[in-house]
Every structure is written in structure tokens, then in C-alpha cells.
Amino acid sequence: MLLRGIELLCKSDEEFNRLIAPNQKKIISLLNRYIKEIELFNPAYGLVGAENTEELIIKHILDSLAPAGIISRLLASEKNPKIADIGSGAGLPGIPLAAALPSCSFTLIERMSRRAGFLHNTKAVLALDNIIVEETQLEKTATSRFDLITFRAFKPLEPKLLKTLLKTCSEKGIIAAYKGKKEKIKEEMKPLQEMTIKWEAIPCKVPFLDEERHLLVIRN
């Protein structure tokens, strides 16, 4: 299912195909090892909500990968972009994105010790050298400003959080939040209108998932 899902993403997005196709076997092998690590630790750590491997692949791995082409295009003008995954938890979306975007540096920010420990262990098992793990909160991160900040199933945006996110972005930094229905995004953004921010919700189809998904993009 993972292979078929990635093939469908390659067909639907030329940039995704450009990123994945040359190293598809390596990336799939990496993601399969990652899936095993999640399944090993999930019963004790409560990392993700998934009843079986198929649900884990669709709702978490493919969902995390689906906007990789969009993110690559957003960062096209940056050299060696720095990306933060805040509230990373099990490493979603950071670890799948790090596998797909090896030229980007990822900082996985997780304040819970147990989950940060899982991320350190998984980094070692997968031998991913383009990620670092910080057991902290976003505003206390030791890393300098990020070109892109992403998060998934983190928390709704509100003025205080958005100001913190924008402060942690580089001058031309981007916030790219994983979201669901367009109407819910519009409702979430209403209280932020007074900040006169520019945002767009980019549709993002996840293979085998019959749910509306968008990448909410906010520019600094």
C-alpha cells in the first residue's frame, strides 16, 4: 500500500515525482523501517491513532508525504532550507518529509520527554543525517530562524501562537500547516483577520483517503 500510494502521488504531482523517483526504493525502505518503529513503540507511548498498519500508512505516512511537492516549490528559492516540525510527536510530518527532501535540514521540536526519546532513537535507527531533535518548546528552540515551519494535528492557530510562529520564521519564512476542510480553515482564520496576514489553502489529495485535506500556507 505504501508503494502504491507513493506511485499515485508521483503521478499527481510532477515535483513530487522529481523528488521521489530517483531514490524511490531507498525512500520506501526507509519509511517501512519507520513504520516498524512506530508500531513497536506505539502501544506504550501512544504516538499515533491507528488501528492497523494500513491505517497508519494512509492517515499518517501518506498524509505527511502528500504536500512534499508543494513544500519543495515553496522553498525553491532557498539554498539548504531549514524546516521546523513543531509538536513533532512521532515525527509526523517531519520524518517522512526529511526522507523526501534530503537537501532540507529538519528540526523536530517536541516538548514531551518520552516522545523526544522516540525521535532520537528513530533518527539513529534510520540514520537520517538531515534531522535534529530538540526537546523543548518552539519559542525556546536553540536553532536560528526557519525558512519553513510546519505542524500537523498540533493546535488551532490563534493570535499569540501565530505571532510566535512568525517570529521564529526567517524574513521570508513560511508557515505550512496541515489542515482538513476549507470551511474549517476559513473559520479558524477569522479571528486572525486583524493581523492582515496573507494566507492560502492549497488542496492536497492523500491516496486512499476520502477526506478533504489542505496545506494552509502563511507567508511572513
Q: Could you spell the SSE succession in H and E letters?
A: HHHHHEHEHEEHEHEE
Low-pLDDT segments, ≥5 res: none
CATH architecture: 3-Layer(aba) Sandwich
> Would you give the CATH topology?
Rossmann fold
Coarse morphology: globular
Give me the side-by-side strand order of the main sheet: 3-2-1-4-5-7-6
The first-level CATH class is given as Alpha Beta
Termini distance? Answer: 37 Å
Helical fraction equals: 40-55%
Tally of alpha and pi helices: 9
Estimate what percentage of residues fall within beta strands: 15-25%
Largest sheet: 7 strands, mixed
Q: SS-based structural class?
A: alpha/beta
Tell how many strands the DSSP assignment holds: 7
Mean pLDDT: 94
Rg, rounded, reads 16 Å
Count of individual domains: 1
Give an account of the 3D structure:
- The mean pLDDT is 94.
- With 220 residues, the chain is α/β, with parallel strands linked by helices.
- The protein starts with a helix and ends with a strand.
- It has one domain (2-219): Rossmann fold (3-Layer(aba) Sandwich).
- It has helices at residues 2-12, 14-20, 24-45, 53-65, 68-74, 94-100, 113-126, 159-168, 182-189; strands at 82-86, 105-109, 131-134, 146-152, 169-179, 199-203, 214-219.
- Helix content is 45%, strand content 20%.
- Strands 3-2-1-4-5-7-6 form a 7-stranded mixed beta sheet.
- It has 9 helices and 7 strands.
- The relative contact order is 0.14.
- The chain is globular and about 45 Å long.
